[in-house]
Amino acid sequence: MTHAPSVSSFPRELVRAIPKAELHVHLEGTVDAPTLLALCERHGEKPPADDVEGVVDWYKFDGFPMFLDRYFTVLRLLRDPEDFALVAEQYMRTAHEQGVVHVEFHSSATGHILEGGKPWAPIHDGIIAGCSSTADDTDMTWGLIPDISPHLPAADCARAMDEVLAHDLEHIVAIGMGGPADTWTTDDFSPIYDRARSFGIPGVSHAGEHGGADEVRFAVEHFQAIRIQHGIGAMQDPEVVQLLVDREIPCDVCPGSNIALHAVDGAESHPLPRMLDAGITVTLGSDDPPMFQTSVLDEYERAWDWCNLDMTGMHALAQNSLDARLVKR
Ligand SMILES: [Zn+2]
């Protein structure tokens, strides 16, 4: 079947009711405008804007570098275990309201440790506390994916990830890579993935977001990534598409993020319909939802609109996300 734009309206309540997992969301990117202002107040920092509307405006970006700059400004406001517990719990509840039964939070671990000068253990324990308290009354499950930020030297990231791997691994379902890929071939991040695997922890990686298919191939071959975040650039090379299909490597695609950060020119040029047609396993995520004025259900709506899906298609995308989750057994 060819996926052409839909003509029928999105059945939001029916899609809300489908159990689904969200596998591509950054904890630090879930800080909404009121929470950002509260964190500034708590830590005596000058906020980037005076009110909620101003922060929502500040969460509009002309591209990836501007986004990364502001993302790391938010990251620096998350300091105490209570901050991490607050945002984890808030987002779990937001996701629960959209029918999400399992969340895998990416967290910029090396950013906190190396740039923020913060020890990992209290951060980790804060996130666990927030997720656990939500899980108690929602029955949700969750996992944590500490991310390497490749704008930092690989040797420093290795040291930071050693600190992560030396702490509680019970809820760490993978390690990941998030940020610009410029340094991947000039610096060596592969040993960090090797070391995580020695603890039984697999690797995932952002790739092919703003870059091309070569990034996706590199992440699969050098990091042995078992899931790719975004991966839309894979469509530039049929061999890389085949690699993803043959190895059954899902892509956790965030269409709203791609639009907000101009990774594609517009909805009509987003490769999501072609990814589905090619047989790539796609899961949908919201990436950094308040920063991109999106939500999990908004992402399902984009898939509905852009790919001419019906409820069978909605169920298939949700099932992909449940099948691709990394639950420790
Ligand atoms: Zn992401």
- CATH architectural name: Alpha-Beta Barrel
The CA-CA distance between the termini, in Å, is: 36 Å
Percentage of residues in DSSP E strands: 5-15%
Arithmetic mean pLDDT: 95
The first-level CATH class name? Alpha Beta
Query: Which series of helices and strands comes N to C?
Result: HEHHHHEHHEHEHEHEHEHHEHH
Q: Assign the CATH superfamily.
A: Metal-dependent hydrolases
> Could you give a short account of the major beta sheet?
4 strands, parallel
Provide the structure class. Answer: alpha/beta
> Total number of β-strand segments?
8
Bound molecules: zinc ion
Radius of gyration: 18 Å
The fold-level CATH name is TIM Barrel
Shape descriptor? globular
Strand order of the largest sheet: 1-2-3-4
List the uncertain runs.
none
Number of domains: 1
* Number of helical segments with 4 or more residues: 15
**Percent helix range:** 40-55%
Tell me what the structure shows:
With 329 residues, the chain is of the alpha/beta class. It has one domain (12-324): TIM Barrel. The protein has helices at 12-16, 33-43, 52-58, 64-77, 81-96, 109-115, 120-138, 154-165, 190-198, 213-222, 238-246, 255-260, 272-277, 296-307, 311-324; strands at residues 20-26, 100-107, 141-148, 176-177, 203-207, 225-230, 251-253, 282-284. The strands form two sheets. It has a four-stranded parallel sheet, with helices on both faces. Helix 2 packs across helix 3 and helix 6 (109-115) packs across helix 8. It is globular and about 50 Å long. The structure holds zinc ion. The site of zinc ion has 6 residues, from strand 1.
